[in-house]
Amino acid sequence: MLVACDGTAVSHEALFNAGRLAASAFGGVLEVIGVCEPVPGVAAGMDVLPVPAELDEARRATMLDDLRRAVRISAAGDPSWPIAVLTGSPARVLAGEAERRGASLIVMGIGRHNPLDRLFGTETTLATLRESRVPVLAVGPEFPAVPSRAVVGLDFSVASRQAARLALHLLAPGGHLTLVHVRPRFEHPSADWQAWDVEYGRTLPPLFDQVRAQLHVPDGIRVDTVAVRGDPAPALLAFAQQANADLVAVGTQRHSPLERLVVGSVATRVLRTARVGVLAVPATG
What we know:
single chain; 44% helix; ten-stranded mixed beta sheet
């Protein structure tokens, strides 16, 4: 498990608790990693003056000290955790390190940045999600040590089914998991469309049953299913809020850069607006 942290966040407890939770749920070593973005060169007329290497190394050393201090003073931290600080683009480094180390999960702060960050996809957690082939768990300061209520956005894709399995493992004993499928909003008056909508509804129960059977739900965990109508991200978040969920889990699909900028994925929109933890699981293959 990789816990991404820069040593200055106000939500160390939530990050470290989420890391402990993931390590316990999936088995593995928890590692804390920071990424120090290089200082860009300075333009001087027609030339670009490189920044002295010593400056980046000093910043990296400072972040490493900050991380060690954060782990040491945090009630959820453990001084025995391996800590590393690398230099580079945070999203690419985190995604690459997670894959290189065979990590099961990247734990990050959910973050709330300015509108330009959101528009251009430079927010670190979002950018990492788009780069990563490893699931990302994004948590805010209020994320509990062990979630008791999780909601999964289920479109019956492989990624969304995997999101349901991972969310199930993160739940506390006696927890409650709801599989939510967002149906298309149906407003067309024609008989053909009405017949299609009825047939669509008939396909859902066996699909839900198939997913539930694949989950191998532990004793004491309650799993139910719900179909709602609307735009996927707002409808899913509205249900999660109504259910007082601690965690929203979604599968993600890879898109071109233009599609990500203009349209955006359901996972992106959920991550941008959720006020609870978000588990995003990428499609593989």
